[in-house]
Amino acid sequence: METLNEIDHLQSSGFGRPRPRHGLQLLHWFSNDYVTFNNDSEMVTVRNPKKKAFGFHRFFDNIEEHDGQCNQLLPDQDLPYYEVGNLNAAKSEDLPHDVRKNHTGHNNDSNIDRIIISLQSDRVLDRIYVTQHDHHRGAFDPQHTYRISKGLISIIRNLDLDDLLEQTGYALPCPSSMDTLNEMRHLQSSGFGTPRPRHGLHLLHWFAHDYIKFNKKGEMLTVSNPEKKMFGFHRFFDKIEEHDGQRNQLLPDQGLPYYEVGNLNAPGSRNIPRYVRKNYTGHNDDSNIDRIIISMQSDRVLGRIYVTQHDHHRDAFDPQHTYRISKGLISIIRNLELDELLEQTG
Predict the structure, then answer these.
(1) pLDDT score of 234
(2) 77 has which bridge partners?
């Protein structure tokens, strides 16, 4: 059985998508609202599943015979298993609306996804699995059953639901044309901010450490309103370009204002730390092509973060080198010294 450790693995598994499946919404609720981590880094449930809140109930493995062999879905552990996700189960109406909203009430794809957990004690979690129900066989599908690692749970806890759905391609007919960078290896392979004299990695380190912080809700807040134009921040207005009869723009329409930072010629940019600016030549060259673009939900609550590079010849940003930065990657960078970030990105 495959273990899913990263968002990429979750996406490639196909679990919980496409619409109207509800597994990704269920997994987001489970990670953010049903489990916590104690001081020993153990995963602990906020409620004992024995109480049957949210539709939890005991799971007993159906042992099936095939070609003379006995097959079961999950390994024997001498620990009780519990499942959640059946939207017809008693008390499943206590699950959030986002999890239930696409349920048709019939035995179809809107109700096939489940989470199965094993417990070491009343509330200490042992293992987490996701699977899908085959209504025709009346059983779960072993070919679409995966173990979920503690690391993936931690990643999902750093994502808004919209971020999770976007990064796994839930609402998209095909994979998004813009990559989201979730981990250091993604940042490294993107090539953003390298090689010298580019300043993007220095800029991103300053941004993650000094320009934003996290509140108790896990939201990212800016230390100052970008409208104040500190550090060279200014409004970003997407240039819609026509190519082969199609209108293309750099970033998605969100109905939220965008702001950019990183232009070392911009007023206020001298307030950016010297280590970000030290390789700047003063000319239109690679020492000043990197930018961060953010969307704002309110005065200081961040929406999304993008990195990109400016093409001085076209006087526009390069869509082939524009990436979304996940909240999880920001958290990783906040735990790194600048030298460590530069070393890990080559």
Answers:
(1) 96
(2) none
Domain limits, the chain: 3-161, 180-344
CA 184 → CA 23, 164, 191, distances in Å? 27, 18, 11
Contact 164, 155 (CB under 8 A): no
The pLDDT of residue 96 is above 70: yes
Mean pLDDT of 173-193: 79
Q: Are 110 and 22 spatial neighbours (Cβ–Cβ below 8 Å)?
A: yes
Integer distance in angstroms from the first to the last C-alpha of the chain?
A: 34
Q: Give Cβ neighbours of residue 316 (< 8 Å, ≥ 6 apart).
A: 239, 241, 310
- Residue 173 is predicted with a pLDDT of 39
Counting other chains too, the contacts that 26-29 makes at CB distance below 8 Å and 24 or more residues apart are 26/84, 26/85, 26/95, 26/99, 26/113, 26/115, 27/115, 27/130, 27/148, 27/156, 27/164, 28/98, 28/156, 28/159, 28/161, 28/164, 29/95, 29/96, 29/98, 29/99
Among the listed residues 15, 301, 35, the one whose alpha carbon sits nearest the alpha carbon of residue 154: 35
CA distance 135 to 137: 6
The answer to whether the pTM exceeds 0.85 is no
Residue 282, C-beta contacts closer than 8 angstroms, at least 6 positions apart: none
Measured in whole angstroms, how far is the alpha carbon of residue 259 from the centre of its chain? 22
For the chain, the C-alpha Rg in angstroms (whole number) is 23
With a CB cutoff of 8 Å and minimum separation 6, the contacts of 11 are 167, 168, 169
Query: How far does Cα 249 stand from its chain's mean position?
Result: 23
Instruction: Report pLDDT for 112.
Output: 95
